[in-house]
Amino acid sequence: MDFATKLKEARKAAGMTQEQLASTLSVSRQAVTKWESGKGLPDIENLRLIASALGVSIDYLLDDGGALDMSVIREPIELASYSDSHIECKKRYPKRARLSDQAVLARFPSAEIRCLIHRQLLDKKERRLQTALWLTTPFANTVDMVNSVKHSDKQFYLVNDGDKQHLVMVTNEFMEIRQLANRQNEKRFDLGEFRFIRGIKLR
Fold it and tell me: Could you report the per-residue pLDDT of 72-107, keeping only the tens digit for each?
């Protein structure tokens, strides 16, 4: 499978249109169309951003072979409809995290589920800004703090369900279930735009 086909399949698996991917990369839709039709290739920086945005590796995109062993399902949920009174991890804070735990436990009744601590990876511009802040001001972690607030409405989980492993993201409105192509067994791993650290085990 060539790069153009893999890019198109990975974009669709991530639930993104060409316009959305183009906006994420700060390029024109025509550029994405050109890449997906095999009439051009992105530069190294855009290739890195594509892999990050679609949750696949650069090696996968460039390797001429292999199928995309990954699917994404987005299910609407009403987080407020869950109860946190019988949750195994009562010390989780805030309450939204406990409700998210309950939603994932209900969705995967017999799977091994572990909470994940997440932190957004900085892109090149953000790393430069953070370095400049570190050298010139006492606000060295400002970029990290802004990103953590920006994603505070999300809870992430690593779910081992038989021979499948899923990365699950829960918000107030939906649960996104991403089947992982490569099994993650490390205590810390990078996937897409986030760095994840394994937290408490729910089941």
Answer: 777 888 888 887 665 555 566 678 888 899 999 999
86, 181: one domain: yes
Would you say 112 and 201 are in contact if contact means Cβ atoms under 8 Å apart?
A: yes
Choose among 16, 65, 11: nearest CA to 42. Answer: 11
Contact criterion met (CB below 8 Å) for 53 and 24: yes
Adjacent-strand bridge partners of 177: 73, 168
Strand partners, 174: 76
Number of domains in the chain: 2
Element (H, E) at 194: strand 194-201
Question: Quick check: pTM over 0.85?
Answer: no
One domain, residues 43 and 81: no
Domain of 103 in residue numbering reads as: 72-201
| Residue 185 resides in a domain | yes
What pLDDT, in 10s, does the model give residues 1-46?
678 888 998 888 888 899 999 998 988 999 999 999 988 888 888 8
